[in-house]
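Two proteins follow. First one:
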Amino acid sequence: MLERDPAPSPVGAPADRRASTLVIIAFGLVYVVWGSTYLAIRVGIESFPPLLLAGSRHLLTGLILYPILRWKTGVRPTPAHWRSSFITGLLLLGVGNGGVCLAERTVPSGITALLVATVSLWMVLVDWLRPEGTRPGARVIAGLLLGFGGLALLVGPKNLGGSGRVDPWGVGVLVIASLAWASGSVYSKHSGGLSGSPMMGAAMQCLSGGVCLWIAGILSGEVGAVHLSAVSTRSWAALAYLIVFGSMVGFTAYIYILKESTATRVATYAFVNPVVALFLGWLLIGESINLRTVIAAAVILTAVLLVITAPHAAPKRQERRAIEPAEA
């Protein structure tokens, strides 16, 4: 009687396990690194003006990545690519990330990350209001109402939810920044004019956003306020961290999980980043976490969870691009 040969090992199984491990590592980087960038911004603006901090971060990232990617990929961006990258870079990095840096002068880094999580809510509204937009379902509308209720709690009267009211001016800047980020994300998804290479597109957006931020810094008089001799070592370290880890490592990891995972799973970074930022702000620079913050965080993050896990129609093939990163 012939013995049956043992079943062969699945071809490519080690590669699959390796890919799964890389996905887990990439998710960990996006969760922790991007959550930590809010703290790095807070430390950076101790010595750098906020617009120039953001502008230097993105401009240097673009200047480093763009020539490398041009050489490595052979992609030659067209004027249409540059036009779309400029609009997206202006909205995402110029107004979005620039607004975050401005707001962190008066809003703690952890609460800033919490408010930036509302980008998921704004994206639903922007996508609904655009031409041929998608109407949100009942669950998403409930999430929107809940999320903006948590936002109102943070800036409400001092006797509402205990002490710890957040500076309304800073919150207003963050609302504008989050709305700009959502608008840039929706535009990027539907414009069809971005470079075929995601990393090349990111480098072009960094160049565009960095130039816009530097122009804004010059016009607002920030350049005259910079005294390099007075910049602290920790602020220089924060800028280096934002360039290397926030933009290069974090964004590369984000691009990888966009390719290897689902949009719903990728969107969980908007849920995790605020928790990381709140913890690091409390642990490393003594930012307070009071009852109002805890309640508002629970409300906003529950709302974000409702929105990103709600059923939605399958996107058209040409529009199948997951959400843009809410990079800090």
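Second one, unrelated to the first:
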Amino acid sequence: MRSIHTVRMWRFHLVAAVAAAALAHASACVAQQPGRGSFDHLRTSFPLTGVHAVTPCETCHIAGRMAGTPRQCEFCHRAGSGIASTFKPPKHVPTNEPCQNCHRSAATWLGARYSHVSAAPGTCMSCHNGSFANGKPAKHVVTAQSCDGCHRTVAWLPATGFSHTGVVPGTCGTCHVPGGPGLAKPANHIPHETQLTAGASMGCDRCHKSTTSFAIETMDHNNTQGNGAGFCRGCHATGTSYLGNMQKKSVTHQSSTATDCSQSGCHRPLGNQGSTYRSW
């Protein structure tokens, strides 16, 4: 009769043999089926970068299917795909362009640069309305023109020359004021508000006829008579430094009693020389 010790030893060796056989079989299976770490995913023309590098294989390879798995972002990152968990949000820029045309990183959706290649001219406001993309700021030039009338798609600033087509005459001051979106008058601008009759109500375009250069101007004296109604010497006296190509002389260069150009007896409208307000 076998001893209890002998039986126990026999059972131990039997269990060890079975375990060794099972381990050998498992090792053989592993050797026949390469694991994830041994497969070069670059062979699929889809490198695993960013979050794709840590995403479980079965997330994309549904039911173990390898061949034919789509490589296009939009195939997976769309509602109802059953593969990806991140999709275009409701406020995404409306576009049918492939995701990778704008999104450069596989680690985050942020930092996208929108490609305007397929954007039709005049449709900027469909996105740049403050909802999908940045819209016009509060101090933007008052205009109904499309953004691409002045702005380029590579940068908002500097904007190209603002098109004044359709701007109502006399409304320049809507933009061309201190703190406004357009260039304001410099400090040494001719003081037309105080030196010309009703000058405060004169629009920029009364003198400035060009919308491409403020230096091109024809002075409109607005029927100013001088002599208190709008002193000529305020701009034309020697020593003044206002902008413009007006002639400047001492008020008494011809008459020691003159107190203003229009009282000299020479310069119109009260004098008799030169065409009105132009050639003195």
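SUMMARY FIELD: The chain has five helices and no strands. Residues 197 and 224 are 5 Å apart (CA to CA).
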